[in-house]
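Budget justification aside, the reviewers requested a transparent look at the raw inputs and outputs of the sequence design task funded under Objective 1. We therefore reproduce one unedited record. The lines immediately below are the structure tokens for a 225-residue chain.
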């Protein structure tokens, strides 16, 4: 398959039940921006709560990176059994389309899951992480994959020792977006990354995406819920 997003329907021959998903094939060295859903997007504790508020300006920052040609990757340590509620929340608040990673079942090490997933994207599929966003808990994850402090953007409360390990968005997403949009604040994705992948829109139908290997590219499976 050439690079792109392919809709697929699979039908069970016996009872004719079906599942719709998409195969996303991306070239090596595709540049991505990673967003940890929990804590960095929500003004309240959990996206599984009763319609938690989204942090002001969060959607605009994600859209800014998408419009520059970066592949958006959303990660969470939450189990895949919560995907419908979480993805519906992303769609409700018009977050741009992107790959979404959930933990496989209940995890005793959600941060470890995030690190393993991102490392797999980098090592197995040649994906490049240009920047990553999260809460203070995610700093160790992003540092472990080799990101520099100026590539790690953190919202919320951060201890003093973590200030040297990340870029803390003290004034929130709106001020950060203004900085990104200023001269030299951010650059378009380079190389093959701009050929790909995801429509410049929101989630529409809630979807989760799981990675699979296919040749030199990344094949991601989106399962509609």
């Amino acid at each position: 398959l050439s690079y792109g997003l392919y809709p697929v329907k699979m039908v069970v021959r016996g009872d004719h039940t079906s599942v719709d998903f998409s195969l996303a094939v991306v070239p090596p060295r595709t540049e991505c921006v990673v967003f940890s859903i929990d804590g960095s997007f929500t003004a309240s504790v959990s996206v599984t709560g009763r319609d938690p508020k989204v942090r002001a300006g969060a959607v605009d920052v994600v859209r800014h990176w998408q419009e520059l040609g970066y592949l958006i990757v959303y990660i969470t340590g939450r189990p895949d059994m919560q995907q419908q509620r979480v993805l519906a929340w992303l769609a409700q608040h018009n977050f741009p389309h992107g790959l979404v990673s959930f933990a496989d079942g209940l995890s005793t090490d959600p941060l470890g899951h995030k690190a393993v997933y991102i490392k797999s994207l980098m090592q197995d599929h040649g994906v490049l992480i240009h920047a990553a966003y999260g809460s203070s808990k995610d700093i160790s994850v992003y540092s472990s994959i080799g990101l520099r402090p100026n590539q790690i953007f953190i919202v919320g409360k951060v201890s003093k020792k973590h200030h040297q390990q990340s870029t803390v968005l003290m004034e929130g997403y709106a001020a950060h977006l203004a900085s990104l949009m200023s001269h030299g604040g951010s650059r378009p994705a380079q190389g093959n990354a701009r050929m790909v992948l995801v429509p410049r829109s929101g989630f529409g139908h809630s979807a989760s995406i799981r990675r699979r290997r296919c040749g030199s590219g990344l094949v991601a499976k989106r399962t509609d819920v």
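Residues 53 and 157 are 17 Å apart (CA to CA). The chain has seven helices and ten strands. Computational costs for records of this kind are itemized in the attached budget.
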